[in-house]
Structure formats: C-alpha cells, structure tokens
Amino acid sequence: MRRFRVVVAAMGCVFPFLLGTAIGVYAAQNYKVPNLRHLANRYEEEYRKKKSDGATRAGGKRTKTVMVDIDHDEL
Asked: How many other β-carbons are positioned within 10 Å of the β-carbon of residue 32?
C-alpha cells in the first residue's frame, strides 16, 4: 500500500511537467512561436550599440533610444 502511494505521489509531480512539455512541443511545431533567445540577443546588440554612441543632455542625464527591427521571416 505504501508503494502505491509513492507511485501516485510521483505521478502527481511528473504529470504537469509532461503535459506542459507536450503542449509546448505541439505549439512550437504547429504555430509560429518566436525564438526568444534570438530576439534577446538582437535587442542586447542594439542596446550596446546605442549605449556606446549615447549622448548626454545638459543635466548629465543620458538618453537611450533603442530600435529593434523584427523580421517575422527570421523567427
């Protein structure tokens, strides 16, 4: 009886993980899900470029304008 409880408890912890993994795989294969790592790297590169070119205002405050172009073909 105790072994049964352990198995049921383990399945209760593993089942949500497996269900989430299966839904994620299905969504990634059938829908256009963006690659967040790629987008984050592009954003960081643009941020670093603008930061090195950044100008300061009269009050000593630095202004930053970051523009990122997102091509849906690259996702």
From this structure: 8
Both tokens of 19, joined, read 């269900």
Alpha-carbon distance 19 to 13, whole Å? 11
Q: Which two tokens stand for residue 22?
A: 């299966």
Residue type, 53: D
Q: In sequence order, what E strands does 1-75 have? A: none
Question: For residues 24 and 66, what is the distance between their CA atoms, to the nearest angstrom?
Answer: 31
Backbone angles phi, psi at 68, to 5 degrees: -125, 125
Sequence length of the chain is: 75
CA–CA separation, 22 and 25 (whole Å): 5
Query: What percent of the chain is predicted at pLDDT more than 70?
Result: 80
What's the mean per-residue pLDDT of the chain?
Answer: 79
